[in-house]
């Protein structure tokens, strides 16, 4: 079904006229399709443009690239080509259809409508014509514009067939329902599509973990990521992706006492982090630390950090395995932060996620997420603050954001008290850091210096002396300077009969 242009301004970029003219010269038909069309109607900026061609997408791409003097990347295995022009990325592909023989899908050249039928969802199957006769007309044979207005995610064909073609589309359905939703317009997955996901959830095992994580990252970076994880749970997909998260569900009751529902709590914390991080970024309060020319440089964060969202998702991941009931104390989860931190490498490995500093960052925040909370319920000593700064380093602002988001009590007075005390901790952090420079602490005493001073070979004593110096600085016994550390270290050495050689 072809409709007249609904609104103006969607195809103002120069590339569309160039593609239209080039397609006419080559005797083929070209259309803008997919996410760009969808985002136009949603009023969202998009710099990724997909062009489908009734003919060879590669040939048209090469002809367009020659006109605009751009390099073109060709992927003949997939029949696609890509170029960049004036700030946008344009990908070309030939229209395709599917037929089936002996149970296997056979992909062949096809028409626009046959190609639209193969698309994942109706809202991503809409197209704008680039033909001169009806330039800008909407081609929408499956009611994508209607579904977009109603906030519905549905497949153009039988969802069992769509998900059979690519099971990852089940997670993509969840991602679109999460990412496209706004406070004014929620998106939901159509009932028949939702039922199909439940039937086909086992098929997700055939999808490479890297592709699943890519979708999870997009869900985590949504305005309200909890929507996605609730949908993953409702469809049964979550248990196949992150069974540890599924085990957070439920409340156990003993002697009439129940504990917090940890799955809901985790998702509430995740949403709190998403809101707080966006606010902090807008106010320029968060920094990322990168190395440039061998030096660590602090840069103001401009985009949400997905690994902070992962830390929020995993902060209580080990509560089910550490849950105990004490008749005097009620339910306890002692050590869940330590156990959870130990689990992080295994979880990352199972999902084929990076095992580098990003994993270590998540592990660190999971391990330390109770420390600031402990400070607000006790006297805030300089020593405790120094040790926190020493352990967390440059990630202190992210840790404090996570811990603040973790305050989810339904008791308004308790929340007000904790948040008030939390501000005191933040103030103390600033004061101690300004005075003692602990955030990037480096021991003033090196092993080489100890060996040279006392004329000794490498041994355990050197490490013991350095540890005593570190603790003395962190506990406020001495100031963080070489002179104070050297004098303290000489005193400790003398106690064990170790004296400097002739200086």
Give a description of the structure.
There is one protein chain. The protein is an alpha+beta fold and 503 residues long. It has four domains: 1-150, Beta Polymerase, domain 2; 152-241, Hydrophobic Seed Protein (Orthogonal Bundle), CATH 1.10.110; 261-436, no CATH class; 447-495, no CATH class. Helices cover 51% and strands 15% of the residues. It is built from 24 helices and 18 strands. The protein has an eight-stranded mixed β-sheet with strand order 1-10-9-2-3-6-5-4, with helices on both faces. A two-stranded antiparallel sheet has the order 7-8. A two-stranded parallel ribbon has the order 11-12. A hairpin with a 4-residue loop joins strand 4 (72-75) and strand 5 (80-85). The longest helix is centred in the C-terminal third of the chain and has 25 residues, at 412-436. The chain is elongated and about 95 Å long. The relative contact order is 0.05. Residues 1-7 and 99-103 have low confidence and may be disordered.
Percent of residues in β-strands: 5-15%
- Largest sheet, described in full? 8 strands, mixed
Helix content: 40-55%
Mean pLDDT: 91
Structural class: alpha+beta
Specify the number of helices: 24
Quote the distance from N terminus to C terminus: 92 Å
User: What are the low-pLDDT stretches, counting only 5+ consecutive residues below 50?
Assistant: 1-7, 99-103
Notable traits:
503 residues, Hydrophobic Seed Protein, 4 domains, two-stranded antiparallel sheet, 51% helix, elongated, disordered N terminus
């Amino acid at each position: 079904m072809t409709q007249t242009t609904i609104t103006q301004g969607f195809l103002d970029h120069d590339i569309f006229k160039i593609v239209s003219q080039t397609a006419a010269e080559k005797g083929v038909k070209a259309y803008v399709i997919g996410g760009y069309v969808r985002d136009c109607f949603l009023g969202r900026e998009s710099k990724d443009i997909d062009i489908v061609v009734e003919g060879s997408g590669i040939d048209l791409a090469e002809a367009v690239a020659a006109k605009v003097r751009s390099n073109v990347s060709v992927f003949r295995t997939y029949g696609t080509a890509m170029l960049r022009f004036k700030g946008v990325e344009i990908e070309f592909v030939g229209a395709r259809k599917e037929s089936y023989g002996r149970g296997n899908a056979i992909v062949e050249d096809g028409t626009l409508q046959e190609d639209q039928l193969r698309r994942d969802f109706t809202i991503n199957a809409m197209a704008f014509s680039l033909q001169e006769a009806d330039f800008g007309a909407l081609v929408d044979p499956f009611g994508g514009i209607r579904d977009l207005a109603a906030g519905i995610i549905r497949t153009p064909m039988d969802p069992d067939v769509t998900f059979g073609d690519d099971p990852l589309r089940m997670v993509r359905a969840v991602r679109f329902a999460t990412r496209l939703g706004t406070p004014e317009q929620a998106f939901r997955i159509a009932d028949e599509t939702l039922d199909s996901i439940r039937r086909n959830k086992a098929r997700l095992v055939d999808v490479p973990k890297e592709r699943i994580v890519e979708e999870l990252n997009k869900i985590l970076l949504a305005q309200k990521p909890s929507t996605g994880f609730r949908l993953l749970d409702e469809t049964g997909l979550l248990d196949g992706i992150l069974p540890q998260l599924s085990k957070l569900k439920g409340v156990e009751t003993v002697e009439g006492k129940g504990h917090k529902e940890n799955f809901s709590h985790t998702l509430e914390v995740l949403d709190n982090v998403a809101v707080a991080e966006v606010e902090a970024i807008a106010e320029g309060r968060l920094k990322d630390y990168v190395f440039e020319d061998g030096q660590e440089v602090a840069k103001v964060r401009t985009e949400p950090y997905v690994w902070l969202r992962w830390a929020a998702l995993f902060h209580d991941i080990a509560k089910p395995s550490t849950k105990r009931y004490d008749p005097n104390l009620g339910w306890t989860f002692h050590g869940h932060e330590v156990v959870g931190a130990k689990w992080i490498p295994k979880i990352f490995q199972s999902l084929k996620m990076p095992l580098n500093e990003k994993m270590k960052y998540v592990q660190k925040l999971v391990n330390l997420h109770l420390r600031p909370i402990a400070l607000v319920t006790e006297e805030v000593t300089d020593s405790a603050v120094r040790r926190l700064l020493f352990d967390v380093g440059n990630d202190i602002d992210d840790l404090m954001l996570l811990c603040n988001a973790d305050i989810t009590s339904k008791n308004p007075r308790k929340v007000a008290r904790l948040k008030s005390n939390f501000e005191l901790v933040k103030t103390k952090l600033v004061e101690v850091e300004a005075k003692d420079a602990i955030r990037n602490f480096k021991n003033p005493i090196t092993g080489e210096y100890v060996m040279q001073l006392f004329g000794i070979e490498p041994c355990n004593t050197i490490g013991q002396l350095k540890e005593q110096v570190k603790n003395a600085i962190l506990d406020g016994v001495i100031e963080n300077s070489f002179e104070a550390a050297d004098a303290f270290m000489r005193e400790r050495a003398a106690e064990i009969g170790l004296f400097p050689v002739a200086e």
